[in-house]
Amino acid sequence: MRLRSLVAAAAAIALGISLAACGGSGDSGDSSGGGSGGDQTLTYWASNQGTSLDNDKAVLTPVLQKFTADTGIKVNLEVIGWNDLQTRIQTATTSGQGPDVVNIGNTWAASLQATNAFLPFDGDAMTAIGGKDKFVPTALATGGKEGTDPTSVPLYGLAYGLYYNKAMFAAAGLQPPKTWEEMVTDAQKLTDPAKKTWGMALAAGSYTENVHFAFINAAQNGADWFDKDGKPTFTGDGNVQGVLRYLDLMQKDKVANPSNAQYDNGTKSVNDFATKEVAMVINQNNADSSIVANGMKAGEYGVVPFPAPQGAAAPVASHVAGINLSIFKNTKHKDAALKFVKYMTDATTQTTLGKPFSSLPVLKDAKPVFTTDAAEAATFADVYNTKSKPLPLVPAEDQFESTVGKAMNSMFAKIATGGSVSADDVKAALKTAQDQVAAGS
Amino acid sequence: MSVATTEAAPAAAAKAAKKTKRGPEHRPGLSRWLPYLLVAPAVLLELFIHIIPMVVGIWMSFVKLTKFFIANWSAAPWAGLGNYKVALDFNNAVGQGLLKSFGVTVAFSLITVALSWVFGMAAAVALQPAFRGRSIVRTLFLVPYALPAYAGILTWNFMLQRDTGVVNHVIVDNLHLTSDRPFWLIGSNALVSLITVATWKLWTFAFLTLMAGLQSIPRDIYEAASVDGAGNLRQWRNITLPSLRPVNLVLVLVLFLWTFSDFNTPYVLFGTAQPPAGDLITFHIYNASFLTWNFGTGSAMSVLLLIFLMIVTGAYLLVTGRKSRRA
């Protein structure tokens, strides 16, 4: 008797956990259920763009109130942090119990499009939100797979830039770098581990940041991560050398604190820069709000494009980063949702939100308003418009991010804990990542 | 126990017989359905919480449930044993990853269970004799168990940071044991950290269970033993251990199942930057399903884990059960 009940108990425990991995799918509908009543109330999931979730809410609330006043459509807002957003979208997709409108990282666009859960902006829908001609073409191109109707439209534009501390550069008699080599030399001159100052800070434990640099550095070498058929090509020489070049900032050049291997999000490296412990940081332009919030004043730092090595194949300085807006296909308020997307992407709203969220305009002929520093605004606009390459617009893009990004986390960890990573090691790690992607698609 | 039931059973049966004699005359039907009615909520809950999700999970392991189909599950194509083949192909990256993670988890579980048991036993025995302040010490020992897991593990995360953590502050700045600040959350030390935190969380449960078990051992046996000249260690080996055997059997099994399937500890301790040395299997499965949106392979791994744990549990109970019959 006891044996049997024990087996039963053990089995129950085992089952409980074996399904923990899949258990999340059923239970996320409640929070969003409020928006699907008969009245015109939209549920909107916003991503974290400001300095905190509360800050986002404070910024968005008056904007949404204006929309309600204009159209009579109420908007039920929920701001979701980046750590949760993808899982929340995933569960919403799986259960069919989602919001009406949602912010997505634009790099997920093609992967989310593949789920078939989002409304394609076809001719009519595109006209309803003001036509595709109002958007910057490169920004709109991130909305979905090439040659299809996009399932998302750009909302906030972002781009990487190399932030440098003007005072530290002046004190060392340095000019802001124009090539990768200059950047490394400058960083080495500004590094003094004994005084706890470092040339650069890297978010080396963040797989999402790491994978962006894998992409950008490989792009500078002229290498792609997927071929025309959407098959992964991770182990090319350009990819391996690109990844290694970035890893070498900590390994060979020693311009970054090994502790950076534990920085699991970009905020930590930006904070080091804002508190003047490091001279340079490579970050997207939304770093501005964090830098200022941490006490650095607008004139104290400058921004130049993230430099490519001398003789690089392409002067790529960023991916086309940003936030897109999607409508769930099963929304009961399609027209209201389209009106809302139109409102969020019109010139006035974009100008209102551009400053608090430090975003680049996604509309043609719009001026950046996120900074008062004209040089900084010009640099970012230049990077976004002429030096950005879109991340691979293939369904397996999300797998590229997680597998390559996590492989880089591990390699940084190995370097930080005293190991060494050779080109062959990088190639082997990327081969494993490629096999994982191939097995998953 | 068997004596008690045989004595109680006739009385209960007689009572029940009386009731059924009278029952049908007054309220026909109700007494017949009452037992089912009383059990129904439990059965329904069991069904919804365990059985149905389990069946769905097993079904998922046989279909190609990737991101192309998660919005419409029913359209997912049948994969047969395809997901299992991927998970068990150890020449492939996915299978290799699973195997490594399995190895890490086995090592983690064995060490954590052993440490938790040793600490729990030591503390329970130490607190067996009454002394002033015993209840205060007992309460203190229970703090890790009473603390919400998230808060406790997050505190460990702060303590184990390389530059700002208190652990390195003590080791490097105060004791000068090493000049190089070690990493605790990445690299090979991650397993040490994981075992430490899991043991910290778990040993109080072992302590609590063993303490309860100790209460049931009659004091006079110890007194008789010490009159016969048995020392503390001898008493522990010859009285405490055998008396606690039934408790230990269950305790070790439960500890093992809990540690083997521990998700919270690696999830909260490492966040999204989990190191290979701390890649526990449930966390590995979570990543395999949620990061790559491949729920079919993830479910296949889950089912494999389930089968493994059932085999281990079954074997454990068979072996220990046989031994107790012989004894």
CATH topology annotation of chain B = MetI-like fold
Shape of chain B: globular
Largest interface by Cβ-Cβ < 8 Å: A-B, 61 and 66 residues
- The CATH superfamily of chain B turns out to be MetI-like
In DSSP terms (H or I, runs of 4 or more residues), the helix count of chain B works out at 14
Secondary structure: helix percent of chain A: 40-55%
Strand content of chain B: under 5%
Order of helices and strands of chain A: HHEHEHEHHHEEHHEHHHEHEEEHHHEHH
Query: What class would the helix/strand composition of chain A place it in?
Result: alpha/beta
Question: What is the string of SSEs of chain B from the N terminus onward?
Answer: HHHHHHHHHHHHHH
What is the 3D form of chain A?
globular
State the total count of DSSP E strands of chain A.
11
**Residue windows where pLDDT falls under 50 for at least 5 positions of chain A:** 6-38
First CA to last CA of chain B: what distance?
Answer: 17 Å
The appropriate CATH architecture of the largest domain in chain A is 3-Layer(aba) Sandwich
Supply Rg of chain B.
26 Å
* Chain oligomer state: heterodimer
Find the CATH topology of the largest domain in chain A. D-Maltodextrin-Binding Protein, domain 2
Q: What does the average pLDDT of chain A come to? A: 88
